[in-house]
Amino acid sequence: MMRYAGKVALxxxxxxxxxxxxxxxxxxxGAALAVLDRDGPAAEEAAQEVQRTGARAIxxxxxxxxxxxIAAAIEATLAAFGRIDVLVNNATRALCGNLEQTGPEDWRSxxxxxxxxxxxVTRAVLAPMLKEGRGAIVNIxxxxxxxxxxxxxxxxxxxxxxxxxxxxxxxxxxxxIRANMVSPGTVQTGSPxxxxxxxxxxxxxxxxxxxxxxxxxxxxxxxxxxVAFVAADEAAFVNGANLVVDGGLTxxxxxxxxxxxxxxx
Length: 265
Known about the structure:
Order of helices and strands: EHEHEHEHEHEHHHEH
Number of strands: 7
Radius of gyration: 18 Å
Helix content: 40-55%
CATH superfamily: NAD(P)-binding Rossmann-like Domain
Oligomer: single chain
Distance between the termini: 49 Å
Structural class: alpha/beta
Shape: globular
Strand content: 5-15%
CATH class: Alpha Beta
């Protein structure tokens, strides 16, 4: 499929993990990519990987909580490609596992890196999208925004991102711009938060798998596939939706169900 032929996608937090996988997926379907990450070398590596597939890509080093850096990144994207058709707000920040560990600065940092940053980038991208009269925005949420699963600051940011998505969808849908959310469950990535967990317990992903009805945690490509669908023209009637991509985690508590079944038997 070449659903993105002639289109330009800007992805934040695209240096690794879900963002990088999404960049490669959209590139494989014809998109030109603006690969944005706070980590400049990671953005450059990801852009080079996209280029090796034959797709066009530029690397952008920017902090999504800095207005000036965002403006420069948008300007560079427009200078390179002339337009922005798709925005994927993937960048996020997760620092503290529970409330006791979370100080005021941690809270502010997690909300800024997860929610405010998405707002600032979206605000900057809306003008060029409105000029074209169309666009697709995909915010990467989390099951943490739906359930209490730790990381309270990050989770609050993801819950806020869901309402922000709905606000975008209702206000800008009539102007040709759709907004949707993709909410992953546990995804095996090399993010700093997961690196810390792996350092404490190298078997953490195996242990978490028992909670997932499909028998495993997610892969970045699982989320990239969902993003590729909701941002494509074939999803033209999908607006304001939250596509939960969690292997059935939020459908029910599989280990609890197993225990109840045994108890009944």
